[in-house]
Amino acid sequence: MSTRNYPELTLRGLRAFVAVEETGSVSDGAKRIGGSSSGVSQQITALEEAVGAKLFDRHSRPLKLTPAGQMLQAHALKILKAVANAQAELSEHNLTDLPKLTLAIIDDLDTSLTPALVTGLQTRFKDCFVNAYSGRSDHIIELLQQRVADICVSANIPEDIAGFHSIPLVREPFILVTAKNLITNKQHILEELEQAPFIHYSEAIPMGRTITQHLKRVRFNVPQKFALEASRSVIALVAQTNGWAITTPLNLLDAERFISEVDVFAVPFPAFSRQLYMISRALELGNLPNHLSEECRHIIENQVIPRFANIVPHMSDVIKIIKS
């Protein structure tokens, strides 16, 4: 009596299956795992032959699991989690021979965070070449998604968050920065701001878009005559035009040399804030992102926060470390 040789379940196939289920399409699933649509389709077909049943309802958009697919999903997640845990433990040993690591740090923290992190990494991995980029949040995320960077610190997180590991580091409020002595009466601060030039972050960057959206929410409409990307330029123009801007403590630190020419206040309308994250691709670097996130928190708590408290004493406690 002849026996039929059925395809075996493979980790590659299970990863493709989970990616398609979570994204709802073969093409998006392929993008998530860095493969081709045809390759993912072949993996799904092989899985269906292995289990002897269809796993997806091909007529639904997005794709939906069949009862057999729902049953396989529960097992697939358990298997992939067990494999990920094993890989993480093994990678801890293998990282001692890490040949190269590329960081991408939001430019607000570049001068205060990058040197300390790079020094710590070279102490930890003596033969590792450490490369570092800095830039705005959206560009940094692109570097991570394009595999140019291995780990990044950003105020943005990838839209396809399932393929990445994001660790919250710090939360900071948006603050008001005005030219020196621009505000003469804090009881009428909004009226005084309406009469002065508003120096805006360009809406081409996430910072500018966040500020614009909040001003719309609180219905504070002011004409925009200037839009810049760099914090140093924004704060310098605030001082030169007798104007004002909305920024954050970390961005103000980036323009520290202008601090004697400006005043700093809490925003005179409902407060808003942003968070910074350490982000890495999931399952690739073991516990290294967790170790680096602790180092980041230590640097921010012991170096960055005291530096801001020194230049803006009345806001010494506004930057908050997010504990793991």
From TrEMBL:
SUPFAM superfamilies (UniProt xref): Periplasmic binding protein-like II (SSF53850), Winged helix' DNA-binding domain (SSF46785)
Superkingdom in the source lineage: Bacteria
Start and end residues of each HTH lysR-type domain: 9-66
Parts of the chain that traverse the membrane: none
Entries under InterPro entries matching the protein: LysR_HTH_N, LysR_subst-bd, WH-like_DNA-bd_sf, WH_DNA-bd_sf
GO molecular function: DNA-binding transcription factor activity; transcription cis-regulatory region binding
UniProt entry keywords in alphabetical sequence: DNA-binding, Transcription, Transcription regulation
Similarity comment: family membership: Belongs to the LysR transcriptional regulatory family.
Name of the protein: HTH lysR-type domain-containing protein
